[in-house]
Design a protein that fits this description.
- The protein is mainly β.
- The chain has one domain.
- The protein is built from no helices and 3 strands.
- A 3-stranded antiparallel sheet has the order 1-2-3, with no helix packed on it.
């Protein structure tokens, strides 16, 4: 079964596209991508492209 946009009703995975954020890392990579409908712009989700390790060590509770 093909996905259907909840806002405009268009059907098909080909209408779910991703756009890179305008915000960029120091290296020029996008911070995140936005998955959205190419017809009406309904946003399905925002996904990180750059993930950093924690800057502090979390203590272990073992």
């Amino acid at each position: 079964m093909e996905p259907k946009c909840p806002d405009c009703g268009i059907i098909g995975v080909k209408h779910i596209v991703a756009t890179e954020s305008e915000e960029r890392s120091q290296g020029g990579d996008p911070w995140f991508e936005i998955a959205h409908c190419d017809k009406c712009g309904h946003v399905y989700g925002v996904f990180p492209k750059i993930v950093h390790k924690p800057s502090i060590k979390v203590p272990s509770f073992e």
